[in-house]
Design brief:
This protein is mostly helical. The strands form 4 sheets. A 5-stranded parallel β-sheet has the order 8-9-10-7-11, with helices on both faces. Helix 8 packs antiparallel against helix 9, helix 24 packs across helix 27 and helix 37 runs parallel beside helix 39. The two termini are about 35 Å apart.
């Protein structure tokens, strides 16, 4: 963009009356019509505008026959007016076009947009100043002295841009603690725009921070009532969440830096608790701080590695202790992950899984996480670019596991712990290595003092010396001995030293003996003091698959009562053999897990071990099934594998079911893998249909793919064709959700054949319906219609109303695309009735939305609004895809009614939701709607951007209909920009696809190709 020098140059103003200023004095630019010519050229500053476009934008449909001659007269007069600019501003004519050669930043409109863009890429203090400068350019309504249809549409869009900038500015001011200055202005603006939920949230937050909690809650009630009365909807999730935070006086609201209204990223605080008893490491902490200071300039991560690969030396404790002490350096948050590089119970964590966890912590919805690993890593690096964050990668196995998790910016510090040296990381990423040795004798004594108190340690110096010698400065061993001593205050330290001395003579040193300490001796010494039930439980916990375990699961693993389980967990925790990671959940150090597994193999008979693990797997399967039934009232009954002596955890509510499944997701996957490989393949197969709804609702597509793929293999091992049929259909749904339509169709077709062979009629119906969905997405409407009709016939035969409603909805959507609106409405009338009878809320919402879609296409806008408002209310109640669909169609409806501001609001919200869900189809639909709106408001550059992005996404999914609409939109934008070659190329592409699909747009595009360029498009696919 050409720069504007400001002082002494010509300045043009459009954000108010149309004005030209030179050296502080106004230039006479003539009457309103002549000003309008100048305004059009300024809006398109330094861009070619055709004579036809100028005539249309200045005179509209009422242009007189001599308008072209009059235009040339106005251009001549404007050239004379601008001679004072000494050549800085010129109107250039070339081949039926005009171009105002001017630095765009000399025009307040373009300067406004430039400043807003700059504000979005800097820190809050600078952003606040940039927003103030940008908003200060406004003097009133844009082009206030002009009145033509095109100018009015541009003015409406500009006002929407200003309102968006005001909202962003307010977010920044709130983060900077300016709430006291905001209340009066926000109150006035909220009264002017009572249905703007983001504005309402800003006012509520400002009131709350000014000590006016009651006023904030009162405003929420007022907004909720007005939304219900005027739109028939409830407040969105963001405003509801803020309301709940105000009700509970959430401390996070009092910190200006932690709350933003709208789409700001959350600030993750993932560091585990700081070690309470930490001694020594003064030199290492100082070196680490020095590394970090140097890192600010050099930009490389810090590696903490231990000597000889021995665990238990205190790498994690040092990293966490240092991280908590320096957390203030990282205001944008701290990320933490245990990469399980040396976990005996599971393989090292896949970097893709770690990145997914980081993305979710950064506010990316699970369904929005890219499936492709490179895209996932790129998104992670983009989100933390220029952020001052700390990333702790604990227990890494090698450089290959760590490299994808390294950010691309020097503002983020990375601390890595590993038992292995990482020369490739040091060489390739300028990492710094800090090798930990064992604690010195003095540091070890200080650690014991922290546990036992100075008096007790000082009373037996010889015994303390012997204990320190036996532990050889290893913090893990010292912690276990100190826990034993602390739990038996009457026992002398000399007695403890004698016990461990005896154990050490009878046990080999653990691992390679490279460190002069017998960890096995230390562990054995604690293990032998446990009561029999606790010792047995310790061994079984070492065998249990998963990363942590709940007390309820421990009760079934050990076959003990709840009270007995509490007692033994307390004993194991007191002995430092397990840790309570959060209330009611326990985990074990990986070295202790190895030792526990050894003891289980040696001390517990194999039949007892297998029975215990069988109870644990039964507990997981049956509790997951109870949770699934809470999530889906229509969950079909399943004949689960008969449980051993287990007691599934009861699920009292949907919220409790979701909480349990969220906490156990990783463990359920680990148990499914273990069960498949160790004699319980039927359990793995049954977990797939049990957990599918949870994974689908939460958007955990990676987890779903892992489970369903493993389950299918297990089903084939057991020969259970019924379970295999379910799993194939679920894999079809999973790939359809992910936009992988060809793969989805393959699974649906295989599942359909399997259902027919086994005779599962209802599942056959859903395989047909899924095949119809997928074919429709691929633009194969004839095949889709055949699948839907087959599903409909089967639903009638079986009397399954839900399946019939789904099939009729699918048929109606094909009728809509082919322009057969009355036939579509007839199908939907029946589908709505069936959905109500089946009491399936999401299905009811989809059928209501379908009616609204058809009314919008028919131009029956008021009827469309009624149905779409009802669909939106249902969608806001829990279905993000339905909510997005409804918003897209509402945007199209308001555009058809000429209300561009409301159209923009609905489509922008739809696009935000589409990105959150991760659905490429939804994103494409929202972008297409935004592109059409940009064309209607004469912003072809923005339209082209929207449509080109939509085309990229549609090419990824293979959706022919979406591809055609994107080509059509790009062509229309090119026509408005007078790029006829580009327009013709994309219209030809659109025509070929529309003709292939047999949809009405084919005729319209054909006329466009063979007639004058017009720059309009015809529909929004949703």
């Amino acid at each position: 963009m050409a720069w504007w020098h400001g002082k002494g140059a010509v300045e043009f103003r459009l954000l108010g009356g149309v004005e030209a200023i030179h050296d502080g004095r106004p230039i006479d630019i003539g009457h309103a019509r002549q000003q309008c010519v100048l305004a059009v050229l300024l809006i398109e500053a330094d861009t070619v505008v055709t004579v036809d476009q100028l005539v249309d934008r200045v005179w509209g449909v009422h242009a007189a026959p001599r308008a072209r001659n009059t235009l040339h007269t106005y251009i001549t007069r404007l050239r004379r007016c601008l001679t004072v600019a000494n050549g800085e501003v010129q109107i250039v004519r070339r081949a039926g076009t005009y171009r105002l050669a001017v630095a765009p930043l000399a025009v307040d409109l373009h300067r406004f947009r430039y400043l807003i863009a700059q504000a979005g890429g800097t820190d809050d203090r600078q952003a606040m100043a940039l927003y103030e400068q940008a908003l200060g350019l406004w003097r009133g309504e844009p082009f206030s002295s002009l009145d033509t249809p095109w100018i009015n549409s541009v003015s409406t869009a500009l006002v929407a841009e200003r309102l968006s900038a005001e909202l962003q500015h307010t977010d920044v001011q709130l983060r900077c603690g300016k709430h006291a200055d905001l209340v009066a202005g926000l109150t006035t603006r909220a009264a002017e725009r009572p249905l703007d939920e983001r504005l309402a949230g800003q006012l509520m937050l400002a009131l709350y921070r000014n000590g006016r909690q009651a006023d904030a809650l009162r405003h929420y009630r007022q907004v909720r009532r007005q939304l219900a009365d005027e739109l028939g909807t409830d407040p969105g999730q963001a405003l509801q969440r803020l309301h709940q935070q105000i009700l509970t006086a959430d401390p996070a609201l009092t910190n200006p830096g932690t709350v933003a209204i709208g789409s700001a990223l959350p600030v993750p605080r993932q560091l585990p608790a700081m070690p309470q008893l930490f001694a020594g490491r003064v030199r290492e902490r100082a070196v680490l701080t020095e590394f970090i200071t140097a890192h600010a300039n050099a930009g490389g991560p810090v590696v903490i590695s231990a000597i000889g690969g021995i665990g238990g030396i205190g790498k994690t404790w040092l990293a966490l202790y240092w991280a908590h002490q320096h957390a203030h350096r990282y205001p944008d948050g701290q990320l933490f992950v245990n990469l399980r590089g040396f976990d005996p119970a599971s393989p090292p964590m896949d970097p893709a899984v770690a990145v997914r966890g980081f993305l979710e912590a950064l506010g990316v919805a699970p369904a929005a996480v890219p499936q492709d690993f490179d895209s996932r890593t790129a998104l992670y690096r983009s989100l933390i670019a220029d952020k001052r964050m700390l990333v702790v990668l604990d227990n890494a196995i090698d450089s290959a596991q760590v490299a994808p998790l390294l950010p691309g910016n020097a503002a983020t510090t990375v601390v890595i712990t590993s038992r292995n040296a990482m020369p490739a990381l040091i060489a390739g990423h300028s990492a710094r290595s800090l090798s930990l040795s064992t604690l010195t004798d003095d540091e070890a004594r200080h650690l014991l003092i922290g546990h036992l108190g100075a008096e007790r340690v000082a009373a037996e110096p010889a015994a303390v010396t012997e204990l320190v010698d036996h532990c050889a400065g290893l913090p893990l061993a010292l912690g276990i001995i100190a826990a034993r001593a602390a739990s038996h205050p009457a026992l002398s330290l000399a007695t403890l030293a004698a016990e461990i001395r005896d154990s050490a003579t009878r046990l080999d040193a653990m691992d390679t003996g490279e460190l002069s300490v017998s960890l096995r001796a230390v562990f054995s010494w604690s293990y032998r003091t446990l009561p029999p039930d606790s010792a047995r439980a310790f061994g079984l916990l070492g065998l249990a698959p998963g990363f942590d375990i709940s007390k309820e699961a421990v009760a079934d693993l050990t076959a003990l009562t709840t009270q007995q389980t509490r007692t033994l967990l307390r004993e194991l925790e007191t002995a430092c053999l397990i840790q309570q990671s959060e209330p009611g959940r326990y985990r074990m150090h990986d070295l202790l897990r190895l030792y526990a597994t050894e003891q289980a193999d040696a001390d517990i008979p194999v039949e007892v071990r297998n029975a215990a693990l069988g109870r644990l797997i039964d507990f997981a399967l049956h509790t997951a099934y109870a949770a699934a039934k809470r999530l889906d009232r229509n969950q079909p009954p399943m004949q689960l594998a008969k449980p051993a002596d287990c007691h599934p955890h009861p699920m009292e509510s949907e919220a409790a079911a979701l909480a349990w499944l969220d906490a156990e997701r990783a463990n359920l996957l680990a148990l499914a893998a273990y069960a498949a490989d160790n004699g319980w393949p039927t359990h793995t197969g049954q977990l797939s249909p049990v957990l599918w709804r949870y994974f689908d609702v939460r958007g955990h597509y990676d987890s779903a793919l892992d489970l369903h793929t493993r389950a299918l293999a297990a089903d084939r091992v057991t020969g259970n064709r019924a379970l295999a049929s379910h799993t194939l259909v679920l894999l079809g749904l999973l790939h359809w959700r992910s936009g992988l339509y060809e793969q989805a169709l393959g699974y649906y077709e295989e599942g359909l054949a399997s259902c027919r062979a086994v005779g599962i009629r209802m599942l056959e119906g859903y395989a047909l319906y899924g095949s119809g969905l997928t074919c429709a997405s691929l633009g194969r409407f004839t095949q889709a219609r055949n699948h839907y009709q087959d599903a409909l016939a089967l639903a009638g035969e079986l009397g399954v109303g839900e399946l019939e409603a789904d099939a009729r909805h699918g048929l109606a959507m094909i009728h809509r695309r082919l322009g057969r609106y009355e036939e579509g409405l007839a199908e939907l009338d029946r589908a709505v009735s069936l959905a109500r009878s089946a009491r399936v809320r999401d299905l009811h919402g989809r059928t209501i939305h379908g009616i609204g879609q058809i009314y919008e296409r028919m131009g029956r806008f008021e009827e469309a609004l009624t149905h779409l408002g009802e669909a939106l209310a249902i969608g806001r109640g829990g279905s993000r895809p339905l909510e997005c669909y409804a918003l897209c169609t509402l945007g199209a409806t308001y555009q058809g009614m000429g209300d561009y501001a409301k159209a923009n609001a609905h489509l922008s919200e739809a696009f935000d939701i589409a990105r959150e869900t991760g659905s490429l189809h939804l994103q494409t639909s929202a972008l297409t709607g935004l592109g059409q709106l940009a064309l209607a408001t004469a912003d072809p550059n923005q339209a082209r951007t929207h449509y080109e992005t939509a085309l990229t996404l549609a090419n990824r999914t293979g959706e022919r209909d979406q591809q055609a609409h994107a080509h059509n939109g790009i062509a229309a934008a090119a026509a408005q920009l007078d790029d006829r070659t580009r327009a013709r190329h994309h219209w030809q592409q659109a025509l070929e696809i529309f003709a292939e699909l047999g949809v009405p747009e084919a005729d319209a595009v054909s006329r466009r190709l063979h007639g004058p360029d017009c720059g309009t498009v015809f529909s929004i696919p949703t």
